[in-house]
Amino acid sequence: MLATIARIGPIQSQNARAPFLALAARLPGVSHETVSAAYEGFGLVRGSTLRGTVHTSTAQDHPMLDAATRLGQAALVARTLRLVETTPRQAWDSLEDFATDEWRSPADLFRYLTAWIGEHDPRAEHRLENGAGRYFAFGHGGLVRRPLKGTWSGQGAPAIAPPAPCSVRRRARLATPGSPIRRPPPPRSSSGI
Fold first, then answer.
1. pTM for the predicted model, two decimal places
2. From CA 108, how far away is CA 159, in angstroms rounded?
3. Predicted local distance difference test score (pLDDT) of residue 164
4. Are 72 and 63 in contact, with CB atoms under 8 Å apart?
5. pLDDT (tens digit, 9 = 90+) per residue, 49-90?
6. Is residue 160 packed enough to be buried (19+ CB in 10 Å), middle (13-18) or exposed (0-12)?
7. Which residues of 88-127 are buried (b: 16+ CB within 10 A; e: fewer)?
8. Residue 8 region, left (φ>0) first, then alpha (ψ -120 to 50), else beta?
């Protein structure tokens, strides 16, 4: 089942049933329990990645989606957070550290991010009170979500955390020189060379 997800790529999953239906269409007989167990065991993870929307991917592919998300949303994050003395990377790392030991609600993460900016970057004139601003507290690629109550296929409020148990290794790998977070690919030449 995980190999199938790896082959087809991330599944857009604002509707929590989408990964279950996508897998059932490709693997007749795959059970709800099998897919749910893959989420529970972190073989599958659900996070706000591509274009800031909710996607399900394999845990192995999640770091790539995280890197692409951070790069793709960097300008919007900078315009919204308006950090002066800190960087979005520092804010994201702090949010991940805050959520490492327990699953957090989006409201918990929003309160934490607001307090963190107030403490670490008091000159920042952030715009966190709008929808996009609230989203940045839980919507960056380094966090994954699970249902706060109910089943993995049900719609409901999410709980958010780094993708355990690999979050420390993943973060260390992404922070190494040459990672896509530190060094985006050079722009393409218009000359075709």
1. 0.75
2. 10
3. 57
4. no
5. 776 688 899 999 998 888 888 888 888 888 888 899 999 889
6. buried
7. bbebbebbbebbeeebbebebbbebbbebbeeebeebebe
8. alpha
